[in-house]
Amino acid sequence: MNQRTIDYFPGPVKLHPGQRYRSDRFRRINIIKLAPSTRDGRTMVAFSRSKELPLKATRLCPRFSASTSKEEPMPKQELTPESNRSWRFHSSTTMLLLFTVTVITVAVTGKSQAQVPAGSYQLSCTNPSMVPAQGGLMLQALCNDFVGSSKAAQLLNAKQCIGQIENINGALRCVVSNTADGIVGFTALTAPWGTEEIWTIDEPNVRQPTTQYKDIRYEKGEVIGIRAGGCVQTGGSGATWKDYVNPLGANANPLYMGQILLPGTGQNLEPIARVNNTKVTVPQQLPPTIQESDLFVTLGYTDDSYGDNGYYKHDDGNPSQCAGIGPAWVELSIIRPVVQATQTWTPGSEPFDLVWNPDNLDGNGLPVNPAWYPQTTGPFAMNGALGANFHTTCGPAMPNDTTIDIDKLKAICTTQAPMMDLMQPGLTNDLAGTAGFCAGDPLRGHLNWGIATHIGGLDLDGWSIGIGGDHDLNFDLVRPDNAGLTATAAGPGMDPALHLEFNSDEVVPQLGSPWWLSFSQAALNVSFDLTPNAEGVNEQARNMVYGKNAVVTGEFGIDGVHDDGQSESHPVYSMAIHISDQKGEQSVDETWVFFIRNSGTEGNCSHQNHSWIGLGPSQSLYFITLPWPTGATDVSLSASQVWGWGTTAEVGQVEKTVGQWTYLQLPNSPGADGQVTLHYTFPTGATPMDYVTKSPPPRKAAEETEVNWAELQKHFTDPAISASLQKALTLPLPTHAQPKGHLMTMNPQVVVHKQEPSPASKGILIRSRTTDDPVKQSWNSQIQTVLHSASTRSHSTAAPVQKP
């Protein structure tokens, strides 16, 4: 029987029923067998991940009719190995599927509105909708959780769900197995830079010491992200529910703890608490005692009696640890990043030398997704490993939190002479030794390498308000390769992410296009009191950006105040968000929203304004650089609505480098915002491919302690001084004044992009131009006035508070 190669999987391709196909590019999609749908004549595809899995008839997708064949084992005589990762199986009279199945349709139906998929989730969820998310479709809804509360839930790539979509304790899951060992969910994601499988185990088996999940397999060289949470009924009398990861109470730890074993990354079961919210790499060279057949997941649970464990009769625990928290869950993200064999990097030698591909710059001549030098070397280059811990690596070069020993920094940290932007120098002296204001750990501010562009999945992290809040809008950007992130990039309940910030007072009053007006009004519509560093997250605004592909250009560096030095892009100069797709027979319309500007500040713990100098003889060329869809042959401008922030009439231009980038050339003095729809065409016989990139997991916003009001108050005993300082530290809320800009036009003709010369092609960082920020100076002078008064009238005689 003929075999043919599928060039890219998954996605609609021309296939023929009754023939076998092999995918050479999508991992673990081995021999693929086709069978026609009984409903609409389209082609369905089944694939095998493991020869050990039983064949199982299942419902493929709501658009197809379900099969009713009973589960039966796979006949061994029908399997013949082609390679270590490929197995052949023969046709059958019924459509038999393995544990993991995917569906491919031969055709895409024009521009019809996506319908929400069927599933039992509709019994306990409301307001379901399908929204574009980075090239795929994400199902979102409000779902009741274990204790009856309504929660926002999402399921990425829901269109390709291979099982039943269910509401499991307030989370949308694509359930592929429901047994005594737990409820297993599976989602497959693909992106231009790699592939990812997300496995979830809800209500894992806690009635025995260990449980093997042989269907959840991984391979050498892959990166596994681990997240877990929830609670377990441990049995007995009284309140007996306990946290699955970090149990509290009598006999907790070593008892009542969830455990995990990932052979190749460890030898024995270990508490999940040790590896929760981390990523581990499976080595290419396995230990002698470990075989490739051993590479599957095992979970464990510690107890002295298992018979009464489970998930029944919920209580809050003793002490309280499960209030409002449902059953235990484990999420495993198995990632294999794709790295081009011809990838080149600029030179580097130290742990925090920033390197990039000099042959793949954006339209501004800036590095794209730069990484720390160690992330790009060795057999596991760009496999998702985080960079070093900035504090422990570079801290010895910082004798105090406002000074750097340049020679020592070059020797142990970076050869690239990053630039400091710390809190106002005079204010630093007034607050010397005070833990409450920009308590540097290791610096009282920022260390900036240069301007760079990053691409990844977006999440809204909140708006900084309250006492000491700097009004920054905070976002997170997630990439599977974790390029440029430090070892402390992942906080509790979070995936590693590049932190993004821009001052809402600088951007929001300028916005004029409908989408950005709607988003900013929602993002700043949060309830708060004058608590220190309140982080307000408006869920309506978050849903507008969550999981969407974004391109961000900003000042890349290390925030020395938070998390032992976290990587961030701050200030953000431009942001483009891919909000929707509309597919035709041989085309796709991509809609992007964006803003761009050429200056900004870095929040409380800084005192400078950073200006981005453009390209060209006039230094006035600025571009937003958008990824080119795989397989597209041309692009045209379908629609645009752009708001210029200046006072003169200006014209924007769309430019292209076929197969690589689309560029929006826009005025950036002072800036612009808007929305464009780009029409991409594909050759005859080709169909646009879906891709979905990894999105951040739903979580609470992180709290940033630039101003710790409780600590700061310890230094002042006079209530009047304390009240004056609180007033000085609380910025007035911005107003939505009518913007003073104007509608601008975009040239309807797309032209070929001509790349301007850039120092980055020779390994030279692109620095911003800095000046003292007059707005920050005025604000800081108010704080200094209060502090000077306090130092002469009522400074506390208590011992100074030491930095943690």
Q: Which segments are poorly predicted (pLDDT under 50) over 5 or more consecutive residues?
A: 1-113, 529-534, 690-703, 794-804
Alpha carbon gap, first and last residue: 69 Å
- What's the total number of strands? 42
Query: Can you give the mean pLDDT?
Result: 77
Radius of gyration: 27 Å
Helicity, in percent? under 10%
The chain-level structural class is mainly beta
Proportion in β-strands? 25-35%
| Inertia-based shape | globular
Largest sheet: 7 strands, antiparallel
Number of discrete helical segments: 10
Strand order of the largest sheet: 10-11-12-13-22-15-20
What does this molecule look like?
With 804 residues, the protein is mainly β. The protein is built from ten helices and 42 strands. A hairpin with a 6-residue loop joins strand 30 and strand 31. Helix 9 packs antiparallel against helix 10. The N terminus and C terminus are likely disordered.
List the main descriptive attributes of the protein structure presented here.
disordered C terminus, disordered N terminus, mainly beta, seven-stranded antiparallel β-sheet, single chain, 804 residues, five-stranded mixed beta barrel
